[in-house]
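Work Package 3 (structural annotation) set out to generate three-dimensional models for the target panel prioritized at the project kickoff. During this period the team completed the workflow that converts sequence records into C-alpha cells, so that structures can be stored uniformly alongside our sequence database. As a representative example, we reproduce one entry of 474 residues exactly as it appears in the project archive.
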Amino acid sequence: MEQDQTNSEPSAQDLSIWRRLILAIKGTEADYTTIDLKTAILLLAVPMILELVMESTFAVVDIYFVGKLGPSAVATVGLTETYLYLLYSIAMGLSMAVTAIIARRIGEKKKEEAALSAVQAIVLSILISLPFAIAGIFFSKELLGLMGADGWSLNEGYRYTQWMLGGNGIIVLLFVINAIFRGAGDAAIAMRVLWIANACNIVLDPLLIFGWGPIPAFGIEGAAMATNIGRGIGVATQVWLLAKGGKHIKVLASHLIWDAKIILNIIKTSLGGVGQMIVAMTSWIFLMRILSDIGSEAVAGATIALRIALFTLMPAWGLSNAAATLVGQNLGAGNPDRAESSVWKIGFYNMIFLVAVSVVYFFFNKTLVGIFTDDAKVLEVGADWLRIFSYAYFVYGWWMVAVQAFNGAGDTKTPTKINLVFFWLIQIPLAYLLALYLGWGHSGVFWAVFFSETSVGLFTLWLFKQGRWKTVNV
C-alpha cells in the first residue's frame, strides 16, 4: 500500500509550483508528517485559504444586499450576530478539539479511531444546537431588545433572528464536519463543501431578499433563509462525502455507535476551546452593547467594518488552520520539532500577508466601507475602525498562528486563560472608559480593541516560545 502511494505521488515537493497548487485543490494522500515541510504547508494551506475566502466572500455579499435595506437592517444583522457569536464560540471550540483529536489519531495511523471520533463529534453538534434553536424561535424579540435594538428591528428584523438562531444546527454541523476533514488532512474536501454552500447562498441572497418573478421579496428575512438553505446543502454534501470516504478518513456504518470514552475526551478537550471562544465572543457582545448606546449608525458601521475585516482575515485563518493540522499530526507522529518549525514558517507568511492588507486599510478605508453604505455617519464609523485595524495587523498575523498551534496540540486551556485576562479584564473596561466615560464615542471602542489585541498577540507568542504545548496529550 505504501509503495502504491509512493508511485502515485512520487515526490510532491519536486513538482512545479503549479502542479502542487493543482494537487492541493484536488486533494492528496500525502503524509504530512514526512513530506517536505514547505510542500506540506502549501498542500494544506491553499484549500484552507480558498475555503475561508469563499466564506468571507459570502459575508461581504450578504451585508452588501442587506445594506440596501437601510442602517436598521444592517444593525439587526449585527445584533443577531452577537448571539450567533456565542454559538460560534461553542462550535469553533468544539471544532478545535475535533481537529486536534482527528489530527492526532491520523498522525498515530489510527484511522478507525479517527472515524469513531468524527461520529461522536457530529452527535455532540446536534445536541449543542438545540437550546439555541429554542431560544431563537420563541424569544427573538426579547433577545434583540436586550441588545438595545431599535423599533424597526423589533417589529420587522426579528424574523431574521428567528431564522438564524432557529437553524443554528446547520451552522454548527458545517463547522464541525469541516474540522473533521481538516484534521484528517482532507482540506480540499472542506474547501469544496464551503464553496458549494456559499455559492448557493450568494445566488439565493438577492432572489429571496428582493424577489424575482414568482419569488416574493422577503426582505431581511430572505437573507437568513438563503443562509439556511445554502448551508443545509453544504451539510448534506459533507455527510455524503464522509460516507463515500475522503483521502484520509471514511465513516462506515460500523462507526455509527455511541462511544462514551471518545465523547468525554472530545468534551474535555473542547472545554478549553469553547471557553476560549466564549470569552472572546462575549467581549464582542459587550462592545456591541456599548456601540448601541452610541447609536444604530455606530452598530451598522462596526458591522460593515467587521465583515470587511473578516473577508481579509479568512485567508490568514486558513494559513493558521494549516498550522493546527500540522502541529496535531506531527505531535501524533512524535515529531515536536517539525511541529514547531511549521508554526514559525506559517507565522512569517501570515505576517507578510496581513501587513499588505493593513496598507490597503490605511489608505482606502473610506472607499471600502463606501461600497456597502452611502450613509455619512455609518461610513465614518466603518472607515475609522478599518484605519485603527491597520495598526494591529503586524502582530495579529503571528497571534493567529500561535493560538492555532496551541489548539492543534490540544492545549486549548492556555489561550482561554489568556483571553480571559486580555478581553474581559482589559478590553471591555477600557472600551467603556474611553467610549462612554471619556466621551471618545465609537473610536474609544476601536482603540480599546487595538490595545488589547496587540497586547494579547505579543504575550501569546512569547508563551508559545516556552514550548510546554509539546507535552499535551489528547
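Residues 340 and 465 are 9 Å apart (CA to CA).
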